Amino acid sequence: METNKPSFGVLDDVKVVYSAVEIAAPTAAAIMGEWGADVTWIENVWSGDSMRDTAWVKELERRNMRSISLNAFTDEGKEALAGLVKDADIFIESSKGGTYARKGITDDWLWSINPKLVIVHVSGFGLTGVKERVESAAYDLTVASYAGIVAQNGTTEQPMNIHPYGADYFNALMIVSSSLAALHKVGITGEGESIDLAMYETMLRVGTYYMMDYLNAGVTYDRPGGRHQNLCGIGLYECADGYIGLCLYGVPQNKYLLEQIGLGDLWGTDDYPEGTSALWRNGPKADLIEEKLEEYLLARSKWDVEKDFVAHKIAAQVVNEIADVVADEHVALRGNFIEWENADGVTIKGPNTFPTFAKNPGGFWRPMPGLGQDSRDVLERAGFSDDDIRRFGETGAVKFGEQVEQP
Known about the structure:
With 407 residues, the protein is of the alpha/beta class.
């Protein structure tokens, strides 16, 4: 497997080291790797990243990386970690709040090695606050539940999580953006930065739209299911042959829809005067509008509705199944899926790199490596001698993959 990263992407000169499992932090590193960053993936010396237990998603989430199996919480492991971060730009760790500091890997220690290092601490509840909360285990669902965003989704009978793993993926994007923002500042000041990224706080930011109504006016909304909390014509609706997503808003759009569903006589009245841009759920005829819209859609094909509504500037989209997305012409023309061979020579199909950079596009340069496959290579790149590498292996601080011969 290739070990020399080719030059490509907007982050070609950025080096990222991360220690984390599963989704949020690793996906952030994966995205930066797709944009050209040189990414080193630290896995534990026991079973490695639990993402390895998945059948296929691991091939996407861990491509463009080198794997070193390392226990950074030993003397030799700490020595090896120092070598990895001495010329890194960004170091990301994900654990219960304060774990690394309690193990002796503090920000000051890291900055003593690399004063310009951007350090990102990813945890469920942050580094400060109520001790029991800070040290609590956290996953996608639990941070979304704590932040109140789960309670805003679902039906009146039951709240619903944001699938699949919405909180993790939102946090991955927050990790990318905050890391690069800090790196931008480092380029100006020459001083490193430490980011306390509490995953629940990202979800607080994501769930702000209706939270602001509560904070400032004490207003709460019922869980809306597949519809909008306070506007007609927005949500998921059933057609004769499936579902369609509608986002109705705007003066000509409202006028056209009311005419189509047989309520054109409402337009221009005191209840719905000309110029009405939003059909509110607390409006005098809201229930009637929803009832007639449902009847109208149930009698028609989702494809016909989409074509007609889009032609009249109403945002409408058939709800695609995964198979529909994969077969779609627009998706194909934009090259949204690519194929590559994994380490075993099996052809893998998965998403391309996003978004599209015109002058410095992202790319794919290597498949997911085996656990510790790159341990020796990574340590050699960090400047360690054969004797050092042998010592790390003998103490158990480093594990070498089957394809890597111990010195």
